[in-house]
Design a protein that fits this description.
By secondary structure, the chain is α+β, with helices and mostly antiparallel strands. About 35% of the residues lie in helices and about 25% in strands. The chain has helices at about 10-25, 40-45, 65-75, 90-95, 105-115, 115-125, 140-150, 175-190, 250-265, 295-305, 305-315, 395-405, 415-425, 425-430, 440-445; strands at about 5, 25-35, 45-50, 75-80, 100, 155-160, 170, 195-200, 205-215, 220-235, 235-240, 270-280, 280-290, 330-340, 340, 345-350, 350, 355, 365-370, 375, 385-390, 410. The model has no long low-confidence stretch (mean pLDDT about 95). The structure holds adenosine-5'-diphosphate. It catalyses: N(6)-biotinyl-L-lysyl-[protein] + hydrogencarbonate + ATP = N(6)-carboxybiotinyl-L-lysyl-[protein] + ADP + phosphate + H(+). Its EC number is 6.3.4.14.
């Protein structure tokens, strides 16, 4: 069993992990940059170590500093949160080489799923339905055009190393292929140092449905249903809910079992998310995230489980504390991502929080590292909080979200809160009728 774990992250997710550790009687070590000396995760952890200057590459991404912080404090395991080093296979290898435990999957699983071509190949072989497209990388424009003909336009050119919505370009017809192919490649080269791209059928009106899976690393795995994350801006999620308003119990059981069986067969360890596009009753795999997701709390709410506690348990070699049969959905949950951004451009707005009041009451969870007088530094992600509500059904979750947003006070910086007030007025949102393009269109028409 661990006495102490180090949290290689910051912000709300660092608090999330520190809280789980504390409930398990495990000590926590925060690491921070010089810009984060006053950050909440530093205050809340049992110990903290400054690991470098503000720039992420010299602090939260600095592998030697993080390993050194473990050695100095005697932490036996590292929880990576999401982002930063959470999907860096090289980091996991180094952690293991230092006889420390990485709270997450193996380096090999991260490597396979981190490359979208090998991920898709692996999933196809495990019986997971995939988007029709190229078999692997597409090296030349001539081949891309040939594939466009075969698959049928529109198609999407995607970077195998892609992430965060970058390195993706749609070609509606052969005339657009050259531009899409060249831009996806050059964007990918610039962002990820790898210009390999592949081609998929572009689905025109899908929903983004993702399945939460969890494995014990020894061949057992379960699924915890789906989250609908279709409300996206520039391929970034802003509003997530579970269960998905368009998914039936039969569909959930079937795709859930396919996913749980797939990860069981590869002896996957810990939390993972298998992302799909869902159109006309069919699921199409797009990628797997080998970490805890930002939106994991909606799943925790409806299943009544603590996913971080479970991650720590399996990292300690303990069995999972639930079986598939134990997992029953109770009610409906919604999360909204609150960013320090100014609408309508969504321009980042770091600055000082003059007043912060978190909503509360039945079925309300606010995961945030804000406090009165806190200055949001300009160096990191603009996510400053997640408001999660849980209700008996979708309707009561929406009502509760409206109530909780009304209680929330964040003074001093602009936030995305007004967006959610407006969305709650929309009949399509109230009915749960939206796809991955709905929000972009709405923003164009309304902001
Ligand atoms: P990233 O890793 O950059 O997040 P994903 O492969 O997860 O990229 O795709 C992100 C989003 O891009 C999806 O949620 C969806 O909105 C859109 N997308 C990706 N592939 C397709 C496709 N084949 N057809 C339509 N939209 C797609």
């Amino acid at each position: 069993m661990f006495d102490k774990i180090l949290v290689a992250n910051r912000g709300e997710i660092a608090l999330r992990v520190i809280r789980a550790a504390r409930e398990m009687g495990i000590g926590s070590v925060a690491v921070h940059s010089t810009a984060d000396s006053d950050a909440m995760h530093v205050r809340m952890a049992d110990e903290s170590v400054c690991i470098g200057p503000p720039s992420s590459s010299e602090s939260y991404l600095s592998i030697p500093s993080i390993i050194a912080a473990c050695e100095v404090t005697g932490a036996q395991a590292i929880h990576p949160g999401y982002g930063f080093l959470s999907e860096n296979a090289n980091f996991v290898q180094i952690v293991e080489d230092h006889d420390l435990t990485f709270i997450g999957p193996t380096a090999e699983h991260i490597r396979v799923m981190g490359d979208k071509i090998t991920a898709k190949d692996t999933m196809k072989n495990l019986g997971v339905p995939c988007v029709p497209g190229s078999d692997g990388g597409v090296p030349t424009l001539a081949e891309a055009k040939k594939l466009g003909q075969e698959i049928g336009y529109p198609v999407i050119v995607k970077a195998t190393a892609g992430g965060g919505g970058r390195g993706m370009k749609v070609a509606k017809n052969e005339g657009e292929m050259e531009h899409a192919f060249m831009t996806a490649r050059s964007e990918s080269k610039a962002a990820f140092g790898n210009d390999e791209v592949y081609i998929e059928k572009y689905l025109t009106t899908p929903r983004h449905i993702e399945i939460q899976v969890f494995g014990d690393g020894k061949g057992k795995a379960v699924h915890l249903g789906e989250r609908d994350c279709s409300l996206q801006r520039r391929h970034q999620k802003v509003f997530e809910e579970a269960p998905g308003p368009a998914i039936s119990a039969e569909e959930r059981a079937e795709i859930g079992k396919t996913c749980a069986d797939a990860v069981a067969r590869i002896n996957y360890t810990g939390a993972g998310t298998i992302e799909f596009l869902y159109e006309n009753g069919e699921f199409y795999f797009i990628e797997m995230n080998t970490r805890l997701q930002v939106e994991h709390p909606v799943t925790e709410a409806i299943f009544g489980v603590d996913l971080v506690r479970e991650q720590i348990r399996v990292a300690e070699g303990l069995p999972m504390s639930f079986t598939q049969d134990d997992l029953r959905i109770n009610g409906h949950a919604i999360e909204v991502r609150i960013n320090a951004e100014k609408l309508p451009e969504f321009a980042p707005r770091p600055g000082k929080i003059t007043h912060f009041h978190a909503p509360g009451g039945l079925g309300v969870r606010m995961d945030s590292a804000l406090y009165d007088g806190y200055s949001i530094p300009p160096y990191y992600d603009s996510l400053i909080g997640k408001l999660i509500v849980h209700g008996r059904d979708r309707e009561s979750a929406l009502t509760r979200l409206n109530r909780a947003l009304g209680e929330l006070i964040i003074d001093g910086v602009d936030t995305t809160v007004p967006l959610f007030h407006a969305l709650l007025q929309e009949p399509d949102i109230r009915r749960g009728e939206y796809n991955i393009h709905w929000l972009e269109k709405w923003l164009e028409d309304n902001l």
